[in-house]
Amino acid sequence: MQNMTHRETPGARAYSTQITHRTGPHIGRVEDYVRALRSIDMSSCERDMLRAHAKAPGREITGNQLANTIGHFGSRIGNRKYGKLAQKIALAAELPMCKSDVSDYLAAVFTLADGEQQNSEDWHWVMHDEVVEALKKARIV
Question: At residue 103, what are phi and psi to the nearest 5 degrees?
Answer without folding.
Answer: -60, 160
